[in-house]
Amino acid sequence: QMMKFAWDNYKQYALGKNELRPLTKNGHIGNMFGGLRGATVVDALDTLYIMELEEEFQEAKKWVEKSFDLNVNGEASLFEVNIRYIGGLLAAYYLTGEEVFKSKALELGEKLLPAFNTPTGIPRGVINLGRQDTRSLFSPCSGMSWSWGWASAGSSILAEFGTLHLEFLHLSELSGNPVFAEKASTFQFVLNKVEKPEGLYPNFLSPVTGNWVQHHVSIGGLGDSFYEYLIKSWLMSDKKDSEAKKMYDDALEAIEKHLVKKSAGGLTYIAEWRGGILDHKMGHLACFSGGMIALGAEHAGEERKQHYVDLAAEITNTCHESYARSDTKLGPEAFRFDAGTEAMATRLSERYYILRPEVVESYMYMWRLTHDLKYRQWGWEVVKALEKHCRVEAGFSGIRDVYTTTPTHDNMQQSFFLAETLKYLYLLFCEDDVLSLDDWVFNTEAHPLPVNHTNFKA
Q1: Confidence (pLDDT) at 131
Q2: Given this model, what pLDDT does residue 148 score?
Q3: 177, 200, 212, 456: least CB-packed within 10 angstroms?
Q4: Residue 252's pLDDT is what?
Q5: Other beta carbons less than 10 A from residue 89's beta carbon
Q6: Beta strand residue intervals within 185-309, DSSP E
Q7: Are β-strands 26-28 and 448-450 bridged in parallel, bridged antiparallel, or unpaired?
Q8: pLDDT at res. 154
Q9: pLDDT digits (tens, 9 = 90+) for 290-345
Q10: How far is CA 369 from CA 43, 217, 321, 343, in A?
Q11: Nearest to 319 by CA among 304, 309, 334, 339
Q12: Residues known to be catalytic
């Protein structure tokens, strides 16, 4: 019902735009996708299909067939286009077998390849989606790629270049062209060569030299999905990609040794690391890690398995506390463990909630691993809070302060709310065989990709 409400309002007021602005009842385009449109359509396809919202799925499919234009000119985030558009199209293809999704995914994938033309093969963060073959007077930069202006000194971001290979392996599988898999896997060789401070992976790497640009380590934004894609890469390869598994195991060991802390009140959290100095803060984005560690625990040796299940449960509990300690029962963008505060945002700039999925994502994995009913109870608390505080007349909106029961809405229904938040909540209450974790791996936008269709190893 929530998904149908979110979709129907998007369709009515913003179809073809990237996101719905539910208060003003119009659409938002934004500059992240380089002129591509319909982010919410592509992000919602698989969720609509899984929820058996057939009429709505057909509406979305029709838009992709008739109106989804890939001949655009503009600067796009390689990472965002990959996880939302390529991931969404691939998942829709694997779930339905409809060729239109496959052909659009491959056509778009080709437009992303110039980003990898760097001295190290580590891609830059921004790609111009313009036609690469016709360098016209008007867009001499088409097909060129730049690094984000705010990323340290033209560096590439760990979570961005490390969150391409699940999708790109499938592009190679479907096209028969190994170039996708080869390019997206280069980062493993580069990272294996470079010295890692205390075994940790900093967030910024130069695509020119292949060296770290500075020593900031985070399991939240900028780092997060790099780690997730290591374990998932191994799972998706039907446990053949031992290189990825070893990188994951070593990284997790270093994280546990240096970043995992316990607060005075007994809450386990993952701190951030700035050149050896800990920042006792955890971002909402880092809350995916409970689910990741649970997923990896299944496949650790017996003696380690229980240890990781416990660690995953503790981190997920901490993230639940960040929700439980707010007046809206929704969690802030970041929460801290210092100056007597625990699992609360202390800065005004961190008190917002933008319909993010990471906490319910971990509930879903923890439920499937343990079948402890509390995870469904916690999920239901989130459903009620979303309905109470984020549902507005024409969709769902993020809120600016989770610590007030009369929140101001931010007027944005994020596409990932339909792709991830609602999908993970739905799966939390489904039987385990709906998108079984034995057969499917979720990309970092919750788009399911099948295990072991891929014999590609670049």
Answers
A1: 60
A2: 60
A3: 177
A4: 98
A5: 27
A6: 204-205, 212-214, 216-217, 260-262, 268-270, 272-274, 277-279, 281-283
A7: unpaired
A8: 79
A9: 999 999 999 898 889 999 999 999 999 999 999 999 999 999 999 999 988 999 99
A10: 26, 28, 20, 25
A11: 334
A12: 333
Q: Residue 97 region, left (φ>0) first, then alpha (ψ -120 to 50), else beta?
A: left
- Gap between the Cα atoms of 362 and 364, Å rounded: 5
d(CA 232, CA 444): 10
* H-run or E-run covering 186: helix 179-193
User: 379: which residues sit within 8 A by CB, 6+ positions away?
Assistant: 360, 363, 364, 367, 425, 428, 429
- Phi/psi at 142 (nearest 5 deg)? -65, 140
pLDDT at 199: 98
The two structure tokens encoding residue 416 = 């990932």
Residue with tokens 């602005």: 21
Pairwise CA distance, residues 350 & 367, whole Å: 28
**Structure-token pair, residue 206:** 């130069």
Amino acid 116: pLDDT: 96
Give the C-alpha separation, 27 to 294, whole Å. Answer: 38
Cβ(236)–Cβ(295) under 8 Å? Answer: no
**Predicted local confidence at residue 146, as pLDDT:** 64
Give the phi and the psi of residue 3 in degrees, each rounded to 5: -65, -45
Residue 67 structure tokens: 């109106």
The SS3 call for residue 220 is coil
| pLDDT at residue 377, as a whole number | 99
Q: Which residues of the chain carry a pLDDT beneath 50?
A: 133-141, 150, 454, 456-458
Could you give phi then psi for residue 216, rounded to 5 degrees?
Answer: -105, 125
Alpha carbon distances (Å) from 75 to 144, 153, 268, 316: 9, 19, 40, 36
pTM, to two decimals: 0.95
Residue 329 tokens read as 């029962």
Burial class (CB in 10 A: 0-12, 13-18, 19+), 150: exposed
Query: Are 342 and 401 contacting, i.e. CB atoms less than 8 angstroms apart?
Result: no
The confidence score (pLDDT) of residue 452 equals 74
103 phi/psi in degrees, rounded to 5: -65, -40
Q: How far apart are CA 419 and CA 404, in angstroms?
A: 27
Predicted pLDDT of residue 138: 41
Contacts of 66 (CB under 8 A, 6+ apart): none
